[in-house]
Amino acid sequence: MNIFEPMLPCEKAFELLDNALAGYQLPGKSVTVAQAYGRVLLNDQTSLLELPPFNKSAMDGYAIRADDRQDQYRVVETVAAGQVSRKTIEPGTAVRIMTGACVPPGGGRVIKVEDTQQDGDLIKVLSFEDRTNIAEKAQDVRIGDLILSAGTRLGSLEIANLVSCGITQLEVVRRPQIAVLSTGDEIVDSPDQLGPGKIMNSNGPMLAGLAHESGLKLISQDRVPDTWDATVAAIENAMDQANLVVLSGGVSVGEYDFVLKAMSAAGLTVHFSRVAILPGKPTVFASREDTFVFGLPGNPVSVFIMFHLFVRRAVALLSGSTPGLRDFPVRLAADFKRRKIERLQHVPCRINQAGECEPVDYHGSAHLAAIMRADGFFLVAVGTAELKAGQQVTFIPMAGGFK
To answer: How confident is the model over 151-206, as pLDDT tens digits?
Structure first.
């Protein structure tokens, strides 16, 4: 592919990626819920239980009959959570009951303990509420209700819901395997190796961390020198090990940028190599059969953004999930201007106390520290040179969007 090809709009690059992955989905495996954190559901999950499984008290208080409203009651029993009453509530009697406990037979209302005054085995009612303070059986979930859909990635909340519905074994998608390659003679892994022209290899550990956060199995993490033979060999070796290969650096048009041509030499079909995104223009995507390879720019902010836009999209498609980032509209806190308008720009920003976004101090795609001060990114569309304060923009949050 011509390294000087025109830049593709972001949506066109997504379309090419989606088409290349069409028909590829990783197989499933059976795991326990305890093993399922971070995995993706292969099948819909429906409840095996009713929730609540019985009429339960929503308060600490006294259970009485629903149609029995008196000034005082005789307390005949105390029932804690996990216990079952031995009594049937009769008119004029009450059962002391704790939050979460099963309502005794005959009970139809719970008076809050705060609304009573106790005198021996009698309670005086200070006030009655209209609500019953009882969570009725199956009011939350019925047997057979859909709990989670296929393609859902399982976090702590999802796992808690599965367990509460009686689901302890399930089918999940096998984790995609990833190999990470950091290219460049200038990068080193230890401060002891630093010298003129050398920088620390931050991209390798960042990509390894992003892989972990994305539910991937990291197969290898290697550094590749800027030579033709080493680049081709590294790509071929990584492809033998993993479904996904992600390289950082070596994708531009410099004399020592070998990645794009090395992909072709390794038998890969290159689908695109330049995307109209700032930062991240020289992003490459290629494939060979069921292996997918990404060449990301060398600057770390570009690596961070393009991993989320493209690599995580591929992961979602391989896992049967819906690709895409979470975004929502916010208002700009101040005017924003730029000179070059041919690319979709991701501007790191924070959300102020008024709920508006304002750019953080940012010196370009090598300024990784700026991203730690940001709450996310707002987007500046292709062709837009200026945005006014108060204007709505699309905001992608770190939490739930880029993370």
So the answer is: 999 999 999 999 999 999 999 999 999 999 999 998 888 898 989 988 899 999 99
Q: Which residues contact 89 (CB under 8 A, 6 or more apart)?
A: 63, 64, 65, 76, 95, 104, 105, 106, 107
Query: In this structure, what are the phi and psi dihedrals at residue 98, rounded to the nearest 5 degrees?
Result: -100, 160
Q: Answer yes or no: is pLDDT of 56 > 90.
A: yes
pLDDT of residue 403: 63
Domains of the chain: 10-26+175-319 (3.40.980.10), 31-47+143-173 (3.90.105.10), 56-135 (2.170.190.11), 328-402 (2.40.340.10)
| Strand, coil or helix: 74 | strand
In whole angstroms, what is the distance from residue 215 CA to residue 213 CA? Answer: 6
C-beta of residue 284 within 8 angstroms of C-beta of residue 259: yes
User: Could you give the count of Cα atoms lying within 13 Å of 123 in the half-sphere of its Cβ?
Assistant: 26
Residue 279 pLDDT grade (very low, low, confident, very high; cuts 50, 70, 90): very high
Cα 218 from Cα 231, distance rounded (Å): 20
Q: Strand, coil or helix: what is 26?
A: coil
Q: Kindly report each contact of residues 351-355 with a partner whose C-beta sits within 8 Å and lies 24 or more positions away, as own/partner.
A: 351/375, 351/376, 351/395, 355/330, 355/331
What is the pTM (predicted TM-score) of this model?
0.89
Answer yes or no: are the C-beta atoms of 362 and 337 closer than 8 Å: no
